[in-house]
């Protein structure tokens, strides 16, 4: 969750939504395509802020009054209660949660009992669908066998570990605090607790060789996780890495190097039975049954609805986007005075929604329906011409296009931004 909030209109203090929101949700359900509802809980605490991180996170030294870890669970529970009242007061139909995701920061810096208590309150105020996916992110050094057992007993079904690399010098450059040997132990504890396991990896760190990356991928595969995410390192302005790159003390990322590492990861993942379903995500799925995909993230990519709780958290309801106060102290203060934690709101226009639909759709192995391009001002004529050209260039799958879907090839995944620009007419 990026730390910079977007521009938008002020959100009302009572948190109420336009009547259009409820109408759209009811209409979608009546037409047989109900909008799903999810919950994201942002836990902004970290022991150390990594040099590459642009997320809304804080160490103990960054926090002011009213923003302690000890009181955080109660503050988030206050937002859940506020959210339920604002939704019902706006005529938004009740919906149970399909997925819940605790992200950060490092959610598991909070006691497992606090995370379970937040989840329990979400179950009380919204309801959680049977078989729902409930995930927490975790650093490998922030869990124990006991804490993972407590999470599983409290309703969590999945844990996503920030492994990042198996190579000590790469972890040091990233300023990650865990040792590589912590990862197998944490995965084993999660398995023993009955939790599904995902591993997050980062490639393209300055100083990381192709063999370093191979070592990381092979170490991750040896643990046989249910799910893998592999993200290219992005140097963001305002981060420690960004400043170091500008000063020339750290080399900038090399897109060609990152492309080579992506291709290596795809080859090794595929050989081990992992199928890509989103450009940066693979699920263990030897029989191509769609299992082990991150259902929560799929809700984002499929433009479904979610409430984001916590400082700086973003939410989406039937086309309306809104976001909370950024700093934990400001966020807590608003809730303490009975005011909505949301400080901004927007409803993107048709052009922005069209662009977003393309951006999200072409990231997925399921692809974007060709029919979605008809929302373009020219009815999709230009985009259809681009599809033919992109197939000829080897960037789109021709068979998928004949079946009515826009799906990138492996080469197309490396040039996703170019595909989006051309289909959108930029």
Automatic annotation (TrEMBL):
InterPro entries cross-referenced by the UniProt entry: Coproporphyrinogen-III_oxidase (IPR034505), Elp3/MiaA/NifB-like_rSAM (IPR006638), HemN_C (IPR010723), HemW-like (IPR004559), rSAM (IPR007197), rSAM_sf (IPR058240)
Described function: Probably acts as a heme chaperone, transferring heme to an unknown acceptor. Binds one molecule of heme per monomer, possibly covalently. Binds 1 [4Fe-4S] cluster. The cluster is coordinated with 3 cysteines and an exchangeable S-adenosyl-L-methionine.
Compartment(s) where it occurs, according to its Swiss-Prot or TrEMBL record: Cytoplasm
SMART domains in alphabetical order: Elp3 (SM00729)
Gene assigned in the entry: hemW
Record domain Radical SAM core: where: 31-275
Keywords noted in UniProt: 4Fe-4S, Chaperone, Cytoplasm, Heme, Iron, Iron-sulfur, Metal-binding, S-adenosyl-L-methionine
Family label: Belongs to the anaerobic coproporphyrinogen-III oxidase family. HemW subfamily.
Protein name, per record: Heme chaperone HemW
């Amino acid at each position: 969750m990026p730390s910079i909030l977007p521009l938008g209109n002020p959100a009302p203090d009572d948190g109420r939504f336009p009547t259009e929101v409820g109408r759209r949700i009811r209409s979608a359900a009546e037409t047989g395509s109900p909008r799903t509802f999810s919950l994201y809980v942002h836990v902004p605490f970290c022991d150390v802020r990594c040099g590459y991180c642009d997320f809304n996170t804080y160490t103990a030294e960054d926090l002011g009054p009213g923003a302690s870890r000890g009181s955080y669970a109660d503050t988030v529970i206050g937002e859940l209660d506020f959210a339920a009242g604002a939704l019902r007061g706006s005529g938004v139909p009740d919906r149970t949660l399909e997925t819940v995701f605790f992200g950060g920061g490092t959610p598991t810096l909070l006691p497992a009992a606090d995370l379970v208590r937040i989840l329990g309150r979400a179950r009380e105020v919204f309801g959680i669908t049977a078989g729902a996916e409930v995930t927490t992110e975790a650093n490998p050094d922030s869990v124990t066998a006991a804490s993972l057992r407590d999470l599983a007993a409290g309703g969590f079904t999945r844990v996503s570990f920030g492994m990042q690399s198996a190579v000590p010098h790469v972890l040091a450059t990233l300023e990650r605090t865990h040792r590589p040997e912590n990862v197998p132990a944490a995965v084993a504890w999660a398995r023993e607790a009955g939790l599904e396991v995902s591993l997050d990896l980062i490639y393209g760190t300055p100083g990381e060789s192709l063999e370093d990356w191979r070592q990381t991928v092979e170490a991750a595969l040896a643990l046989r996780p249910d799910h893998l995410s592999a993200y290219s390192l992005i140097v963001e302005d305002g981060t420690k890495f960004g400043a170091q790159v500008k000063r020339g003390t750290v080399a900038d990322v090399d897109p060609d190097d990152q492309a080579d590492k992506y291709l290596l990861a795809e080859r090794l993942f595929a050989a081990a039975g992992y199928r890509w379903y989103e450009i940066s995500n693979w699920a263990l799925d030897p029989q191509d049954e769609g299992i082990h995909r991150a259902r929560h993230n799929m809700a984002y990519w499929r433009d479904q609805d979610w409430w984001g709780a916590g400082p700086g958290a973003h939410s989406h309801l039937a086309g309306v986007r809104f976001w909370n106060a950024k700093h934990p102290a400001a966020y807590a203060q608003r809730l303490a005075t009975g005011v909505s934690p949301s400080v901004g709101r927007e409803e993107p226009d048709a052009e922005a929604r069209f662009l977003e639909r393309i951006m999200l759709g072409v990231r997925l192995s399921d692809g974007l329906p060709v029919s979605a391009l008809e929302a373009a001002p020219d009815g999709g004529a230009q985009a259809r011409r681009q599809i033919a050209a992109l197939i000829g260039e080897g960037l789109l799958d021709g068979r998928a296009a004949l079946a009515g879907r826009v799906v990138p090839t492996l080469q197309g995944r490396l040039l996703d931004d170019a595909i989006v620009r051309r289909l959108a007419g930029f």
